[in-house]
Every structure is written in structure tokens, then in C-alpha cells.
Amino acid sequence: xxxxxxxVVVDMDVEDASDxxxxxxxxRRVFGYEAxxxxxxxxxxxxxxxxxxxxxxxxxxxKSLCYQIPSLVRxxxxxxxxxxxxxxxxxxxxxxxLGVRAGFLNSTQDLEERRLVEAEFLAGELDLLYLAPExxxxxxxxNLLDRGKISLFAIDxxxxxxxxxxxxxxxxxxxxxxxxxxxxxxxIALTATATDATHTEITSxxxxxxxxxxxxxxxxxxxxxxxxxxxxPKKQLLELLRDEHAGxxxxxxxLSRASVEKTAQFLVDNGIAAVPYHAGLDARMRAEHQAxxxxxxxxxxxxxxxxxxxxxxxxVRFVAHLDLPKSVEGYxxxxxxxxxxxxxxxxxxxxxxxxxxxxxKMIDGSEGDEAHRRRLSAHLDAMLSLCETVxxxxxxxxxxFGQESSACGxxxxxxxxxxxxxxxxxAQKLLSTIVRLKRERGQKFGAGQIIxxxxxxxxxxxxxxxxxxxxxxxxxxxxxxxEWRGVVRQLLAQGLLAVEGDYGTLVLTENSGEVLxxxxxxxxxxxxxxxxxxxxxxxxxxxxxxPVDLPEEALPVFEALRGWRGRTAKEQGVPAYVIFHDATxxxxxxxxxxxxxxLGAVSGVGENKLAKYGQQILDELAGRGAEGxxxxxxxxxxxAAGAGPxxxAAGAVAGSAAGATARAxxxxxxxxxxxxxxxxxxxxxxxxxxxxxIDW
Length: 696
Known about the structure:
Blueprint: H1 22-31, H2 40-48, E1 53-56, H3 65-73, E2 77-81, H4 88-97, E3 102-105, H5 111-122, E4 128-131, H6 139-147, E5 150-155, H7 177-181, E6 187-191, H8 196-205, E7 212-215, E8 223-229, H9 233-244, E9 249-253, H10 257-269, E10 274-277, H11 283-295, E11 300-303, E12 316-321, H12 328-335, E13 345-351, H13 353-364, H14 370-388, H15 393-400, H16 412-415, E14 420-422, H17 424-441, H18 447-455, H19 460-464, H20 481-493, E15 498-500, E16 505-507, H21 512-516, E17 523-525, H22 530-544, H23 555-572, H24 576-579, H25 582-591, H26 596-600, H27 607-621
Helix pairs in contact: 1-3, 2-3, 13-14, 14-20, 17-18, 18-20, 23-25
Enzyme class: isomerase
Domain HRDC: 551-631
Region (Disordered): 627-696
């Protein structure tokens, strides 16, 4: 498939829904929304008509609606293939809260529970059935599906089929057989993360060459991207949380389990609610920490990349990285977990030279052939380029995915444009020092020792190796240490310097000679002073903290509704956003409806929820609610900004092709342990401790 032939769908709200198609009726009746957003309606109508589709849409764009509504309109059961076993319970709970007949089959269930779901499937009593991809390699599951009626197959997180991708799952490779075994059943593959290469691989490996392709803009305008030089990362993180995100829910990513534990404890010691999450924790603790994050306000999860895929928590206000992500794809997917509700959010990253040394070490020790290692190196180089760019971060990020954009005005380089300077002479000094150490002494060192030599520092190690006798000793005393670290990082990002070995020693590349020979200039971004960094953070905070459109007199009403929602969610054992999203509560607080008819006209209040919660909300508005109604919500403050269904708001719809009333959801046991966690990098604990000469 030539990607030039792919249909790119521009995001435009669908205002004209006067034809009131069956899909629109489902959207209005149960979800309570008047119109679809972006390309949702076109995708949905295409799949309802029996067509295959490949959908690339950012997190929060409403991908789930694109298979849930067709499953409800078409005859039969929609089978959703998802790798997120630990989250299937929450997905099904959210659907059942809307009246949708949903179930799942995975390894967390006992025999009796599985048999109940299988019987419901065979009896046509389900609208949606969630399966893990590995179950489709079991003949018993295939035989079960043969005996029922399937309306469609939805392949969620389709990028997991990309063999060299950051989330590769081998079981996804077998999903091409869906078309072979059920050729008349439409398929829809969806992902929020895909380069052109990954898009092509999804199409090829899933045998979807004849599908229609819908590619939405990957831009997340509500997310503010910020990247800082790493100095004291935990203190930098603490400053971010205290100054800008006090009381907010967020995710902090670290590369190793040890770093996760230390960072979580550091936050707790400083009075911030935080829990760790990684594969080394036992199943019960992982389940507890994940459940708390979904159900509580203001909790921070410190995690490895094992955490986050499919987490449907709308009000994550920030995602922070204390270590450099391995690829731009991974960075985009992880930062995309912030701001699913469309409200202003922060993506913050601190990175330094040690990150590069760690990543190079992991690449050198990775499995696979030389071509695979070259791919990993290319991913890292692209990530370094994003970190050191003087352009708009968003422009560079979207360009990586083949999309054009203009300067956003909502990233650190736009808010405080970095100054640039001619770093050619500084680069020549640093590269010359590396050359002289190699030629004259037969030695290689990391950045710390080389910077000490350049700055003329007579440290114990400099004296030990007689490096104060080198001709280059002290030739770089015109730059601060932080500036020299910036020179090293930018030379790495420009491919003019490389890191090798277990100890992060610096070596020249094939392009270094052009700089040493004066045939290439080296423009660089200037390292900001501490005061400038503080001013940048202040500007970023002001930009990010755009006021939510809520009248002042409606604020106490909104908080009272959040309090009611939190208590209700706690009683039912579900995340608060399953009850209602913040956007819906804001509209209720603003309009103050007094009748069920008025309440039913609010965006996000469908028939099922109106019947279930309508009188409680009216009582709350009239001041007749339960005691404590003026407090903050005990559960998470889920949200779905905007008038249309998106992200977490687009979790489910009720109704069926025959228009039958959905039966009451059966109780589901909530004390199951999750399965083994999603795979983490095998070498995450093998990261080398830097030697003394690397003063990061």
C-alpha cells in the first residue's frame, strides 16, 4: 500500500445530523450528544455498511465510538481484541453503566464466570465482547465464535502488530486470520500512535490492504510540551508539582524499577500522594495501585512504561518523564495520557547525558541483528533531536508522524524562544580534547572528565591522569559547566558525537571531521540561566492554566455535584467518570435544570443515566442531597471537554440493532487479581551505574 493513497480526514465537527441515521440516534439517545466529532460519523457509517477501516486518531479523539456504535447498530456481537487485560473490567463497567450489554473473557475469570459470558454470547445477549489477542490462538475460543453471530472485529491498539515497534505483541501477528476465517465480518483497526512505517506494517500484517484509511491530526493542542536539562531531577519534579500541579492527578515515568521506587518514596516524603507501579510488584499491589489511580482524585503514579496503555482516566493533568523515552512514538503515546478531557495539561521531560549513555548501552546489548540496532539508534536520534530543537516542539513532533503544523504558542520553545549561538569553536575544542586523549594517551573518558579538562579544573582525577598537562587544559573556561553539558547533548543530537561502552565514554563520529576541519558550522541553543528558567516556567504555567468556562456562581454547585459523584462512584466501586464526566457536571452546574426534561437536554446525559441518576441530581441541585454534598469528589474527576464525544467520554453507547432494551448488567466480581503485567524492557534493571568521571 502506498501511503500517498491513504485518505487523510480533516477534523471537523459534524453539525448536520438532521438525517438522524441510526448511529446518530444511538449517540443522542444514550450518550446524550447531539453530533459526532471529527471523522467519527464517516468511519462509523462505513463500518456499519460492512467496510473495513484502519483508523489513526489521537488519544482523546473518540476511537472507541468508532467500533462501539457499529457493534450496537449491526446485528450480532462486536468482538473487541484488546491487549489490556487488566483494564477490561473497567471498560465493561463503563459500558454497563450506559446500559450496554458487555462482557469479557480473559485469564482473570474463574470457570463459572467464563461459562456465564460464553452462554450470554451464544444466546445473543451481548452487544460487545472483549478478548485478549492470545485467546484467538486457542481453538476453543475460535469454535465459540463460530457458534455465535459476530457483527464486527475491532482490533484496538493496532500498533502492537508492528514487529519493531515499542509495544510489539507477538499474538497480534495471528490476527490476520480473522479475515480468512470470517471473510464477511468487517474489521476496524485503531491506534493513537503510528508513523508512516507503522501504518504500513499494520495494513500489511493485518491483511487490510482493501480497507479505507482514516488519519486524523495527531495534534493535542491542550497539552503543553516542555523539555528541560536534567540537573537534580527529583527536585525539578517536586518544583513542577508544587508550583503548577498541586493536588493534580498525574503519571511520572522512570526507566528502571529502582528509580520508580525511589521517586515514589521521595514524593511521599515530601507530602505528595504517590504510589509505584512496575512489574516487580506483586499482582495484588499492582491491582490496588491501578484501582486507586482510577478512582481517587489527585493521586500520582510513578511507573515504568508497563503502566498506562488504555488507562481511561480523563483528568490526568500532567505526564512527567524523569528519563529519556526510547522513541518519539513512545514519548507521544505516554504524554498523550494527559488531558484526555481536553483541559490544559503538561507534558514535562527532564533529560541529560546519562540518559543517552543508558540508552546506547541498552541498544548495544539488545537482541536482534545489526539492522534492528540501527532502527533503535534512529529512534533515539529522533528523540534527541526533539529535545534539542530550537523550533516549536509541536511542529517537530507532528513532522515525525508526517503531519504539518505551524508554531503552536503552547510549548516551551514558543513561550520562551531559546537564543541560539555559533557553537562551532566550542565543538572544535571538545572534539579536539577527545582526539588528544585518544592519540596522546590512548584514553577515553565520559563527559564529566572532558568538561573538567576544558574548564581547567584540577580535580583529583585530572591530577591522577596528568590531564592538567594537556595542551587543551583550560581552553574552555569561557563557558559554564551547564553550557558545556549543553554542548555535549547538542553534538550528540546532531550526530557529531557518540556514546559507547558500559561507561558512557565519548567518541567521534564520521561527521566529526567536518567540524574539526572547519567545513561545518554548529549552531546551538543557549542554556538558560536559572532566572530565565524560572521565568519560562511562570509563562508556561500562565499559558497552561487557561480558565475553564464556568461562571463563578456555578463553582460551588459544580463542587457539590463532584461530591455527589464521588460518593456514588465509591458506593458502586467504579471510577467517578463512569458516573458522569466533568464537562457534563459543568453544564449542569451552569444551567441548573429543575426538571428531568431539562436535565436530559444536557450534553452527556443519555436515557440510561437520566433514569438512573436524574432524580438524585435534581435533589442535589435543590439542596436535598445527602450530607457532605458540598465537598470535593472522592472519586476521580473524569471529564470530557467539548460538545461532542471524545476520549474517555466516548467510552460506550447503549442500544442495539433491534432497538431492544438493554438488560440490567450482571454483578461482576471486583476482587480479581490482574494478570501478569504488560512486558517491560528486559534490561531495565541492567542499566550501568556511571563511573566517577561522568559528572552528570
